[in-house]
Amino acid sequence: MDAHGTLVGINTAIYSRSGGSMGIGFAIPVSTAQTVLDQIVRAGSVTRGWIGVELQDVTAAIAESFKLDVAEGAVIGGVLRSGPADKAGVKPGDVLVAIEDKPVVDSQSVLNTMAALAPGSNARLKLRRQGKDLELVVTVGRRPKPQARVGTE
Q1: CA–CA gap between residue 42 and residue 133 (Å, rounded)
Q2: Which of 123, 63, 140, 129 is nearest to 96 (CA)?
Q3: Domains plus CATH for the chain?
Q4: Are 141 and 52 in contact (CB under 8 A)?
Q5: Alpha-carbon distance 56 to 54, whole Å?
Q6: In this structure, are residues 125 and 138 in contact, taking their beta carbons and an 8 Å threshold?
Q7: Which residues pair with 139 in a beta bridge?
Q8: 151 φψ region: left (φ > 0), alpha (ψ -120 to 50), beta (else)
């Protein structure tokens, strides 16, 4: 809670050497908790959007090598074959600069933005590919369940 008594986050874990309440606390924002609660009440489960890419933050060095004006965005490091991004034409090496006209600051903002989109909906991606601006529409998917490994029961 903040100084005015407004709920701002919910503790999820505390790292403490002594096992008490003194240490480092980890919390989720109340807006995230509200979104999760709303989805559970409405649909009975939480569903997060997913496009099937691996991301890397744009650092100053990456921005210079890609000839970007600012060190913002996320580099597409990998694209899952036959995933939503692959079907839309996203390629490794593309720099994602905006989703639905919302600027991408870093890879974490991409994950948060995509997770909030409903599977089956369309999202406009603004990309930079080999120095040229490009806009693609991706149909947001649902993250596939991890496959169980043979012999790891």
Answers
A1: 39
A2: 129
A3: 9-43 (no CATH), 49-142 (2.30.42.10)
A4: yes
A5: 7
A6: yes
A7: 122
A8: left
The pTM score is 0.72
Q: CB of 126 within 8 A of CB of 135? A: yes
Angle, alpha carbons 35-146-58 (nearest 5°): 65
Spell 118-139 as b/e; 16+ CB within 10 A means b.
Answer: eeeeebebbbbbeeeebebebe
| Cβ proximity of 93 and 129 under 8 Å | yes
**In sequence order, what are the residues at sequence separation of 6 or more whose Cβ sits closer than 8 angstroms to the Cβ of residue 81?**
none
pLDDT at residue number 55: 94
Instruction: Give the pLDDT confidence of 10-66 residue by residue, as tens digits.
Output: 888 888 888 777 788 888 889 888 888 888 898 888 888 899 999 999 988 988 888
Amino acid letter for position 96: L
